[in-house]
Give the backbone structure.
Amino acid sequence: MPELNLILLGPPGSGKGTQGERLQEDFRLPYYATGDILRAAVKEGTEIGNQVKEFMDRGDLVPDDVIIGVIAERLQQEEAADGFILDGFPRTVPQAEALDSKMKELKREMMAAILIDVSEDEVLRRLGGRRTCEQNPGHIYHVEFDPPKQEDVCDIDGGKLLVRDDDKPEVIKNRLAQYKEKTEPLTAYYEERGILNHVDGSESPDEVEEAIHGILATLRREEEEGM
Ligand code: AP5
C-alpha cells in the first residue's frame, strides 16, 4: 500500500483544519498543523513560543528555520512511519525545498498536495465567524455555517469556544497578503512536481471531504497499478 503523505494547501480559512481533523480520523494518520503547534507553544510559553508570538499576532509568517525544525523532528517519529498529514506547512518555497530534502533523506515521497480553492469573500466570511475550542483547537465551528449546539460551548468536550487572536480584520488582511506573496507560489512548485490536486472548497465540509477521498482513491489505484 503506498504511503499516504499529504500536504493540505489553501488560503487562511479555506478549511484545511476542518478537513485535516476529518482525514486524521478517516485514515488514522498523525496530523501536523503548524498553526496549532505554534499556538500551543505560545500558550505554554516555550522558547519557540516566545520567539514566534509577535509574528503570529501580526499575521506574519514565522521564520523558516524555526518551523522547518519543528516539522523535521515530527516526520522522523515512529507514529509518522506509515504516512502523515501536513496542514500549514510548507508555506514558502524554502520550506518546500527543506521538506523535499528531508523526505529524500528519509527515502520517502510526498503522495499529494491538495489545494482547497475558495474565494477571498468566502474566506472573510469564514474567518469572521470562526470559533475554536479552548481545550482542543482542532474542534472548529462557525457561528453561521457550523454552529455548536449550545452557544460558545464545544459539542465534543464542553470547552469554551474562543475567537482566535489572529482572526481580527486587520490581521486577516495581512494573513491573506502573506499567503498571496509567499504561499501561492507553492501551487506552481507542486504542479511542476506533478502532485498538485485541486478541490472546490466552496462546497460543504462533507462534500469537500468526499472530493479529497476521491482524489486519494484514484492516486492509490494509479500507484498500485504502476501508472
Ligand atoms: P494557521 O493556523 O495555519 O492559519 P491559516 O493557514 O491562516 O489557516 P486557518 O487555520 O486560519 O484556516 P483553515 O484553512 O484551517 O480553515 P478552518 O478549517 O479553520 O497559521 C496561523 C499562523 O501561524 C500564521 O499566520 C503564521 O504566523 C504561523 N505559521 C503557521 N505555519 C507556518 C509556517 N509553515 N511558516 C511560517 N509561519 C507559520 O475553517 C475556517 C472556518 O470556516 C471555520 O469556522 C470552519 O467551521 C468554516 N468552514 C470550514 N470548511 C467549511 C466549508 N466547507 N463550508 C463552510 N464553512 C467552512
User: Anything to note?
Assistant: The CA atoms of residues 135 and 159 lie 6 Å apart. The pocket of BIS(adenosine)-5'-pentaphosphate is lined by residues 10, 12-18, 34-35, 38, 55-56, 59-62, 67, 88-89, 91, 95, 126, 129-130, 140-142, 145-146, 166, 175, 201, 204-205, 208 (CB under 6 Å). The longest strand covers residues 4-9.
